[in-house]
Amino acid sequence: MTMPRSTRKDIFLHLAVIAVLLAANYVLPEYHRSVFSRVLVLAVFAMGYNLLFGYTGLLSLGHAMFFAAGMYGAGLPIYHLGWNVPVSFASGIVSGALLALVIGLLALRTTGVAFMIVTMMFAQVGYLTSLFFTTWTRGEEGLVLTPAMRTLDLGGTAISLSEPSLRYLIGWALFSIVLLLSLWLVRSPFGRTLVAIRENEERMRMLGYDTFRAKLSAVVLSGTFCAGAGAAYGILFGYVGSGFASIQYSILPLLWVLAGGAATTLGPLIGTFFMFYIIDYTSGLTSAYLLLVGVALILLILFFPKGLLGTIRERWAKWLP
Amino acid sequence: MAAMTPLIETRGLTKHFGGLKAVDGVDFRLDKGEIRAVIGPNGAGKTTFVSLICGRIQPSEGTILLDGADITSMPAHKRVLAGIAYTFQITSIFPKLTVYDNVALSVQRRLLAKGRVTHGALASGVEEALERVGLAGRAETLAGNLSYGHQRLLEVAMGLALQPRLLILDEPTQGLSDGEIETFIALVREVARDATVMLIEHNMQVVMELAQKITVLSFGKILAEGSPEEIRANVAVQDAYLGGSHG
Lengths: 321, 247
Hints:
The complex is a heterodimer of chains A (321) and B (247). Chain A has 321 residues and is mostly helical. Chain A has helices spanning 7-27, 30-55, 64-81, 85-107, 112-132, 134-137, 164-187, 189-199, 201-205, 211-237, 248-260, 267-285, 289-303, 308-315, and strands spanning 143-144, 151-154, 157-160, 239-240. Chain A has one domain (7-245). In chain A, strands 1-4 form a two-stranded antiparallel sheet. Chain A starts with 6 loop residues before the first helix and ends in a 6-residue tail after the last helix. In chain B, strand 9 and strand 10 form a beta hairpin.
């Protein structure tokens, strides 16, 4: 939270990361390009989570509901109503934002452990709802969005979103927008307000800040980013299922953010890559790969207690946002 | 001009915690431009009383008026914007942020209320507040690394940066050295030129030097009120402090 000082350096860093990721589309082998495109979309999920957990200090255990709200908000109308891609994407984002507003109003009446439990309960309700309406959602089995449903109509020419390069570029574009938005947000007066609420909420209230409203805005923004990721994931990879609403997808963004560094703008990306590749690599070695993942996480905690980027920032690069 | 409206007025202000009446039917007036000390034995309800005024806690009964307007149900953050700033008894700063950023949060709040926050306005507001408390050279220090006395001054700077009409100081000199107390007295005098000050204080030297009027609380009620000389001579006050009769 340094004020106007090192602005240029960190904007340059973020643009460089975005440029490298763009170049990756043209040099990576097919398998890794496909992994990267998934990671980029999931990193958006992690960035949304980080806004609430890292910057505002609110630990939610229910963010799968926002990811799933985006996914179903986009996937159901495509599948059942034949909506086109841009409209359903928007519908996914709006679903997530509205859900976040309602959940925020209710859950923010609690703090700390109670907040974790309440968000987890609501997410569980979301998961069970997706199973209950199995006629439309097909529950765990899920809905497969065929390539025909996932075409973008550009001035008469239909482009299929299942094309790997285009899919990558869309994931990349979404990631870049959310990354720059996050950077701008955390440097704005609003971002400084959130960090200060995390550090000392009572003091902020007595400095004249409506802390409830600030936290509610953070929940809505976070939910909206996560819903954007969910909607994009469903549309780009053609599958919408209850699994994405389960507790696992509430824990994953927490893990990604912790691994990469909470309250760092690039940490979520690094954490998501790290977790993805470590599982990818170890599962090729042994069927007991979770054992190795566990060892890796323990080493990470030992040597990078604040996550990869969080620890780098603390020790060597204080200017990192 | 008719009789001046007091800046703060309370009528029958009461707060009970379960069976305990921490503040019990207090009628209180504070005029504009005054320096008022609130004193009383431990547990007299001083902090509860000022917390009711700044809105940290809600009263059980009674009303609070700010400049004639009823603010009893106004939430704390709005009272700050209306001009009531509170500095905490237990130093409550942001230890992981720099001194600059601590004060910037106050200045930012004031600027947000007026519209836009620009870096220039932010920087000059912060500089001014730090200048007044004598911390101008420490802007880049992490607040948590300041000495205790300097943290108290930072706390005051955060209050000042809000440009309040009423600055409430809750035991500001607790834990300060004699030298720091001298500086602090000069600071409050300077602040009082354009704001009303209300301070809870145990240090009688500070109270006698600063206060124009003293309110003595005991068991949640106003025991006595008057000039420092009157309070010094008041037998009831002596009893309350020394516990029991002595003469």
